[in-house]
Structure formats: structure tokens, C-alpha cells
Amino acid sequence: MRREIAFYILLLALMAISCKKEDLTPSYIEITKEDLQNSMDMGDFNFVQNTTYTAEELAAIARQNFTHVGLLVNGKNLGVYTLPAKIPILSTDSTQLYIMPCVKMDGISTTVRNYDVMVSPCITTIFLKKGEIYSFKDNPIRFKFQKGVQIPLLELFNNSTVFSPDTIVSPISLKVEMIDGQNVGVITINETQKPFELIGPEMTVPAQEKNLFFEMDYKCDRDVYIGIDLYYNGLWNARSLIGLRPTNTWNKIYVNLTKIVGNGAQGNATIKARMRLAGNSMDAEQAKFCFDNMKVIYIK
Predict the structure, then answer these.
(1) Overall average pLDDT of the 160-170 stretch
(2) Which of 71, 147, 168, 281 allows an S-S link to 287, with CB 3.0 to 4.6 Å?
(3) What backbone torsions phi and psi does residue 2 show, to the nearest 5 degrees?
(4) For 203-215, how does the pLDDT look when each residue is reduced to its tens digit (9 = 90+)?
(5) What Rg do the C-alpha atoms of the chain give, in angstroms?
(6) Which residue, 262, 271, 148, is CA-closest to 202?
(7) Residue 40 burial class via C-beta count within 10 angstroms: exposed 0-12, middle 13-18, buried 19 and up
(8) How high does pLDDT run on average in the chain?
(9) pLDDT reported for residue 114
(10) pLDDT at 193 (0 to 100)
(11) Nearest-angstrom CA–CA distance, 184 and 39
């Protein structure tokens, strides 16, 4: 009888243990757009890349618009999050994070991709407590460009511009003006002037298995169109890339050039190219197009 009682007591104890719920209270990390706004560490950029960019040029290269982050926690991939994000983490105490900056490629919210082809992830170890929120106010997120960055086009519109009008389409030139406290490239057109079309300087870019992007800050009263000219068979061949909707605030666009340049290169390792910008006042009496911080970037 005593053995039976002992058996049932043991069985009840095991059942109680098995029925005890696991504590799944998460910790949280909070990442905002402000955390990534000035997150590029350019301190040793010139040394690492063997370049001689000025402080102003380095600041322009560093200016990004990271709208999402990819996150690994203790080596486990948790996915990609839109900023701002409050992310539940089933981890406590010392926790290693890999934070990867992401951008909306071609301006499409469903085409978010890691920018880690250009920028190394931020690797940091933090201390988490269940139910508490960890923020990065006292532990800034910092990224660095990968070694081997090449920037064949960097246009800051300081005092002049390397873009010229395509006179076959229109004689309208881009001017440098002070807008919102900084020098930017400006096109102003009216009903009688109608379209403009600008061509950038000639550059040589890779065409095989390279990540090649065009980046630009802009605001415009009417649609603006981005294209690229590729030189092959002895001729410049124009290719349309993307159209941008009007915006009365500054926006940034990332355009993936990789595929269209690779297709145009016809098997060659490199190809000559130049960027193209176009716009029209449509039915408006006047339309203004503002551009800043243009660059073409890739990793060699």
C-alpha cells in the first residue's frame, strides 16, 4: 500500500512538473529611423578605400535612408523589420545582435533588400531583461562601408555641375541654387519650355556579377524620370529605369543598375555608361525639380 501511495505521489509530481507552463515573456529591442539616420562611421573611409574624399564628400557618401533593418539574434535570423520597430526577443542576459541596414530598392516598398552588399552589419552585444525594452540611445548603431567601394559618380552640386542638357531634346540647363540651406541642382521650367533632359558624365562601370546602384536625393513638382545610356556597337543606347512621383519634401531613391547594365554589356566585363534625368512641366505654369547627392556606387 505504501508503495502504491508513493507511486501516485511521484506520478502527481511528474504531472505537475509537465503541466508547468514555460515562461515566454519576451525582452524587446527598439530601433527607430533616428537610430540609423547618422549611423555611417566614415572615420577611416579614406584609409580603408585608399581614397582622398573631402569632409563634405564623405558626409554626402554617408547620407543614407535606411527604412528597414534585418536582425540576427545569437546567430538566429529573425527577419526584416520596418522602422520604427519594437522587436520581441526570446532571449535574456548577454545577447549578440547582427543589425543589417536595408533600403527600398527602386522606391518600391515590397522590394526591400539588405544594403550589406555595400555596408557591413553592426555587430553588438547587449544585456536584455524579460519584459523590458532595450533602446540604442546610449549605444549608437554604427555601420561601415565594405572594403573595395568604388564611386564613379559623386555629384554634390557645390558650385557647378557635371550634368549638361541633351540639346537634341531641350537646351534647358541645370543651375546650382541654395535650397533648404544647401546647394542643390535645380531645373525650373514653364509652359513654354516644357521638357528637360540632362546627361551625366561618362563613366566606366562593371557589368558582371557586381552590385551596382544609383542613389539620389530629390524633390520635384512633377514626375521625374531616371535613365541610363550604355555605349555599345559604337553608339550610345538610352535605357529607361524608373519614374518618380512628385514630392514636396526631400526623398532618397536607390536604383539597382546591375541587371540592365549587365544585359547591355553583351558579355564584356565593363561598359561605358552615363546617367540621364528628364522631366516635364505638364499643364503647370511652372515646375521645379531639385536634385542633390547623386552617386553611382559598387564594390570592386
Answers:
(1) 91
(2) 281
(3) -60, -35
(4) 999 987 678 999 9
(5) 26
(6) 271
(7) buried
(8) 89
(9) 87
(10) 67
(11) 23
Residue 219 pairs in a beta bridge with 290
Report the alpha-carbon distance of residue 100 to residue 72 in Å, rounded. Answer: 8
Domain ranges of the chain: 27-147, 152-299
Residue with cell 511521484: 10
120 grid coordinates: 557591413
Q: Which three cell numbers stand for residue 245?
A: 512621383
- pLDDT for the residue numbered 207: 86
**Unique residue bearing C-alpha cell 559604337:** 234
Cα torsion angle, 170, 171, 172, 174, sign:
positive
Whole-Å CA distances, 89 to 27, 53, 77, 96, 217: 5, 40, 11, 11, 35
Cell numbers linked to 61: 557618401
| Omega cis (within 30) before 84 | yes
How many Å apart are CA 170 and CA 29, to the nearest integer?
A: 52
Per-residue pLDDT, 7 = 46
Distance CA 266, CA 261 (A): 9
